[in-house]
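Quick question, first post here. What does this chain look like in 3D?
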Amino acid sequence: MKSLVQLTLIITLFLTAAVHGQDIAGVATYKSQRKVDFKMDSTQMNDEMQKQVMAMMKKQFEKEYTLDFTNDESVYKVVQTLGNPSPMGGGMEIAIVGFGGDDLLYKNLGEDRFANKTEVFGKAFLVKDTLRDSEWVLEKETKNIGEYTCFKATMKRTITTLVSFNSDGTEDDTESESTEEQEQTITAWYTPMIPVQNGPGNYHGLPGLILEVSDGSETILCSRIVLNPKNGVSINEPTKGKEVTSEEYREIMQDKIKEMQDRYQTNDRRGGGHSMEIRIGG
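> Answer (accepted):
Ran it through. Tokens below.
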């Protein structure tokens, strides 16, 4: 069965190359949705308010992106960005912070590198590093996404999550943080009908454009593709922002989270306190 899948891929790639030629350019539009896991002390927030917070956070994670791509390069950017954190009752504020900002992500597959321009707490960063290795396993399942026949691929990876917890805001209030390692299974659907090894976000390395990908909590789905647009595609590597590596950016984010934690603890002591868990990772 594995040999049959490989033979099918080879034939599809050959026919696709004959149709599209060697040079490929296009614009793909993606939409993302994420599962939200929000935890708070039930004595400080009733069920109805928790539902409101969950709905607000879910809406904030619904984004639209465009991927301008050629054979070797791409730019992935947000079409609809998040607004400022929304205030909740009792002076509480929800802030969502994570690694791997998505303001503008440039990938160069030929040179195996990326440049990610992002803004965090009003400061611009330019994260530059090598692309993560993608150890995909090609599966036998197929399905159609729009007019494109897609093949399934999976990959396992381990992510480290920073967990920061504030207690109830009393004088003997304590704070704790720890790291958790978690194995994720990434499921992607790619189409050899568009033979570029690219996809949304940091996903790449399959023999065809990735049209759908899910890590179990976030799903990104392609909703529209324009191949060889009349006005071409615009791919420019970002240059503005403080240049850092992925690891340096992670350390900066950890420091920012500690600052947020201290601020919330101070507010909790003044206002009666509540418990809150902040998770960062990816």
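Helices lie at 2-20, 47-60, 246-271.
The CA atoms of residues 46 and 195 lie 51 Å apart.
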